[in-house]
Amino acid sequence: MRGRRGPRPRQGDVLTRRLLVTGGWGFLGKHVRALLAREELTVIAPRRDELDVTREFPDLGAFDVLIHLAGRTFVPDSWQRPGLFWQVNAGGTINALDACRRHGAAMVLVSAYGYGNPDSLPIPEETVLRPTNPYAFSKVAAEEACRYYAKDLGVPAVILRPFNIYGPGQDERFLVPSVLRQALAPDVAAVELADCAPRRDYVHIDDVARAVVTAALREEKAGVFNIGSGRSHSVGEVARLILDAAGVSKPIVDRKQTRPNEIMDTVADISAAARELDWRPRTSLEAGLAALVADARPQAV
């Protein structure tokens, strides 16, 4: 993929010349590929039926950086199939690291929130990881694999820890698209939520994609970085912001169904990303939700 903008690779600069993207056709992957299309790079983005991350990677040609986005993501599903989440998220990362080792390439791993219930807020990267669900457990294991390969097998790795991602194209089972659907559906009388209380740090998909591309094009391939907004909002507040943006008056019904090992509040300390990646979020939650409402309205009519 080639475009007019972005850094031109220098002669002999293997760090920004050829990138392999796993999961490039998923929610985050599509946004990452759109940003990479603006750079003067060769991007390999095999489809799911062309690359099974749970097996040894086929020969896809030489590459210099592997952006690893492929994985299972929906927390409720992980309680039903923890082994599958481990196989895809942890085992798939090991296979990706093996591919990097064979090609002398670096890894950018998109991990997840694994801090559990924090002792204080905001949460810096040095906080002890205490995963509270099988999904987070599988992602923490993937991080451990990156650390081992970097230390003992010579595979440089950058780890990004996004907090709660939202944005266009997200699976309708997640909170924001679920609330959006209920808010705009004329035959739905109320917005029903399992639990209004938990607070999360919501970060827009465009900001996350920008962090991924920044890490991939950065010369130094090392470090762990939180990717969030630095603010938290409750589930109920998110629903109210969507209703306000839509100009819709509907009651919010709280079923008070607390999930197993629920985390009540998360706020990312994003100072390391700001300092070392020169990355900061650009889209506020209010603006991001308003844009989603505007985009969804034609389909809702």
From TrEMBL:
Keywords: Lyase. GO terms for molecular function: GDP-mannose 4,6-dehydratase activity. InterPro entries: Epimerase_deHydtase, NAD(P)-bd_dom_sf. Transmembrane segments: none annotated. It comes from the Bacteria. The keyword Transcription regulation does not apply. Residues 20-228 form the NAD-dependent epimerase/dehydratase domain. Pathway: Bacterial outer membrane biogenesis; LPS O-antigen biosynthesis. Its EC number is 4.2.1.47. It is an enzyme of class 4 (lyase). Belongs to the NAD(P)-dependent epimerase/dehydratase family. This is GDP-mannose 4,6-dehydratase. It comes from Ancylobacter koreensis. The lineage of its organism: Bacteria, Pseudomonadati, Pseudomonadota, Alphaproteobacteria, Hyphomicrobiales.
